[in-house]
């Protein structure tokens, strides 16, 4: 049994990681850390975890976990990755988004240059667990098997901004276009309230719209924020959707429903997000064990893939600021959040 740990259990997301262990076969939740002692104790008691720490470095050193879930704001990620590397932690799953702007992107890219590829660093995946939702897996397989013909166009959207949910949408686009490199992005942004400083540090413009060109003549359109379509009566995080159009059919996924049109036959139905999510999170965790056991079975949500997706966001920001199409990959400019604040505020 792999020994797993979570860093940061005061917020909401850690519950998803812990709950998934009901379905994880090869690992157990063995330790947790959080600076807030009351919330730490409440969480550890609820999920029946004995070893608990208010200092994640102490937990890494004393518990020597095999796999660590990093569930902190985006500005508290690199220091944990480096501490884990120093402690010899073999693998980490880091919450999205992996970065916010060019400076942290470059620093994490530098870290990634060694991680997972050599014995020097840990294997790192990013927690875009929707990829592993059973329904998403089935739709991704249909498209990969050519059941909608050749993919021509993808349309993805989410109700929250690029930092909160846009990386889920970009990961989804990539999941339906495996192996195709993004070539360019043309984007527009508006609204500065999401650029204000908050403890969550998920800085992004309130709304964004982008067209992304991929290899093989496939275009994707991405909409995030209030300009994205509403797909559910539920809370703001429920409005993620992706539609993939091919030469002979299409598939549509949302957080609560799905539709397909294959060879002229329509099908569809509904699913319950939390029911899907607990299995998606467990499957993501099992895929980490696969990678840890066989270095060639690289996790589909590995750090390099997330950095490539995030590079599209950086290109989008530069496209909006300079009012031009941006070729990808882009070497990010400095102070993008500050410049967006100035332009949109
Ligand atoms: N994949 C998904 O579907 C999904 C869903 C929701 C959220 N998320 C992501 O998950 C992450 C966490 O979300 P959340 O809603 O749980 O956030 P949150 O409520 O802001 O919690 C942040 C956590 O980080 C810890 N933390 C903050 N600063 C720290 C520091 N300097 N050192 C160590 N720990 C620190 C906090 O615990 P202490 O203060 O006790 O240390 C807390 O547990 C975010 O990146 C968010 O985007 C993902």
Helix and strand string, N-terminal first? EHEHEHEHEHEHEHEEEEEEEHHEH
**Which strand order do you get reading across the main beta sheet?**
14-13-12-11-7-10-9-8-15
According to CATH, the fold-level topology of the largest domain is Dihydrodipicolinate Reductase, domain 2
Gross CATH architecture of the largest domain: 2-Layer Sandwich
Distinct ligands = NADP nicotinamide-adenine-dinucleotide phosphate
Q: What shape does the CA trace take?
A: globular
Average per-residue pLDDT, rounded, comes to 96
Radius of gyration: 20 Å
Q: Quaternary status of these chains? A: single chain
Task: Please identify which CATH superfamily of the largest domain we are dealing with.
Answer: Dihydrodipicolinate Reductase, domain 2
Top CATH class of the largest domain: Alpha Beta
User: Which stretches are poorly predicted, pLDDT < 50 over at least 5 residues?
Assistant: none
How large a portion of the residues is in β-strands, by DSSP E? 15-25%
Count of helices?
10
Largest sheet: 9 strands, mixed
**Which range best describes the helical content: under 10%, 10-25%, 25-40%, 40-55%, 55-70% or over 70%?**
25-40%
Question: What does the model show?
Answer:
The protein has 345 residues and is α/β, with parallel strands linked by helices. It folds into two domains: 152 residues, NAD(P)-binding Rossmann-like Domain (Rossmann fold), CATH 3.40.50.720; 173 residues, Dihydrodipicolinate Reductase, domain 2, CATH 3.30.360. It is 35% helix and 25% strand. It is built from ten helices and 15 strands. The strands form two sheets. The chain has a nine-stranded mixed beta sheet with strand order 14-13-12-11-7-10-9-8-15. It is globular. The protein starts with a strand and ends with a helix. The structure holds NADP nicotinamide-adenine-dinucleotide phosphate. The site of NADP nicotinamide-adenine-dinucleotide phosphate has 22 residues, from loops.
């Amino acid at each position: 049994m792999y020994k797993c740990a979570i860093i940061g259990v005061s917020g909401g997301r850690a519950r998803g990681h812990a709950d998934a262990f009901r379905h994880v076969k090869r690992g157990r939740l063995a330790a947790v850390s959080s600076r807030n002692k009351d919330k730490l104790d409440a969480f550890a008691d609820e999920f029946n975890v004995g070893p608990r720490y208010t200092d994640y470095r102490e937990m890494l050193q004393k518990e020597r976990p095999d796999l660590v879930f990093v569930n902190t704001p985006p500005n508290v990620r690199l220091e944990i990755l480096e501490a884990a590397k120093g402690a010899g932690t073999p693998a980490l799953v880091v919450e999205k988004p992996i970065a916010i702007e060019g400076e942290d992107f470059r620093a994490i890219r530098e870290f990634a240059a060694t991680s997972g590829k050599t014995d020097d660093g840990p294997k790192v995946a990013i927690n875009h667990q929707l990829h592993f939702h059973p329904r998403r897996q089935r739709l991704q397989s249909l498209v990969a098997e050519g059941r909608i013909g050749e993919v021509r166009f993808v349309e993805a959207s989410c109700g929250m901004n690029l930092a909160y949910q846009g990386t889920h949408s970009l990961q989804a686009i990539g999941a339906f276009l495996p192996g195709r490199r993004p070539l360019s992005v043309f984007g527009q942004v508006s609204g500065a309230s999401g650029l204000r400083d908050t403890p969550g540090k998920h800085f992004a413009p309130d709304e964004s719209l982008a067209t992304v060109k991929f290899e093989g003549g496939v275009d994707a359109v991405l909409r995030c924020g209030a300009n994205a379509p509403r797909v559910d009566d539920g809370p703001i995080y429920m409005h993620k959707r992706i539609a993939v159009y091919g030469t002979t059919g299409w598939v549509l996924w949302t957080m609560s429903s799905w539709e397909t049109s294959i060879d002229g036959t329509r099908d569809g139905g509904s699913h319950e997000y939390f029911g899907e999510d607990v299995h998606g999170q467990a499957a993501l965790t099992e895929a980490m064990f696969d990678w840890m056991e066989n270095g060639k079975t690289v996790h589909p949500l590995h750090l390099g893939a997330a950095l490539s997706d995030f590079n599209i966001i950086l290109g989008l920001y530069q496209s909006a600021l300079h009012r031009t199409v941006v070729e990808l990959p882009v070497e990010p400019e400095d102070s993008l959040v500050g410049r967006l604040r100035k332009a949109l505020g």
